[in-house]
Design goal:
It is a single chain. Residues 8-62 have low confidence and may be disordered. It contains 6 helices and 2 strands, in the order H-E-E-H-H-H-H-H. The longest helix is centred in the last third of the chain and has 29 residues, at 157-185. The protein is an all-alpha fold.
């Protein structure tokens, strides 16, 4: 994927969160809570040591492809959807944020988020997975839902700052948790390297968030 295409028509309100459970340090297991479409290619992934077929972020079966196992693919798809949603939120910051320090911090996060999103999309294309959003329209607890996004769009000053901190703190924390799962269960070296970078970046950004 040479250039990142806007997802505004497909994913501006993709509402998602997933709880990561690492079982025996093997396969990435994700709690299902929505009915998404299957997204996979290549040969079927092997069953995990628990005897359950690998699943994507909605509970549907995921196929491995090349050096990418089901954990790699599921992580790429979810992080792309999460980062795309975060991009929408961060686009509001320059016009709505109140505190100068938070505005500068959000600008740095927006720049890093865009670079990360491009890297994720490039790896997904390398895996041969179509650039679609299997989580579009999903409404799962813990992330920005339609009402919260509307509140962010309507708020300015201190109220926007409060909502922005809350949304991004949750996003960054979730990105760390998900990336830990790739460290334990991922297969492709490039995905594992990017996951480590995402984890470190999310941790740094969360710690440096102006209070």
């Amino acid at each position: 994927m040479a250039e990142l295409e806007p997802r505004s028509s497909r994913g501006h309100r993709a509402h998602l969160v997933v709880t990561l459970v690492c079982t025996l340090g093997c396969m990435l297991s994700l709690l299902s809570g929505c009915a998404g479409s299957q997204q996979g290619a290549g040969t079927p992934a092997k069953a995990s040591v628990t005897g359950n077929a690998p699943t994507d972020l909605s509970g549907a079966a995921v196929a491995a492809t090349g050096t990418f196992n089901s954990t790699d693919i599921a992580w790429l798809q979810l992080l792309i959807a999460m980062d795309d949603q975060t991009r929408v939120i961060l686009e509001l910051a320059p016009r709505h944020v109140g505190e100068p320090a938070l505005k500068r911090w959000a600008a740095d996060v927006a720049r890093d988020n865009l670079g990360q999103l491009k890297a994720l999309c490039k790896l997904l294309a390398t895996a041969g997975i179509p650039d679609t959003n299997p989580h579009e329209g999903h409404d799962m607890p813990g992330m920005v839902d339609a009402g919260e996004l509307e509140a962010l769009a309507d708020a300015t000053g201190p109220e926007f700052d409060r909502l922005l901190r809350s949304a991004l703190r949750e996003h960054l924390t979730q990105a760390e948790h998900l990336s830990n799962g790739v460290r334990d269960s991922g297969s492709d070296t490039r995905v594992r390297k990017l996951a480590a970078a995402v984890k470190n970046s999310a941790a740094d950004q969360r710690r440096s968030m102006p209070t």
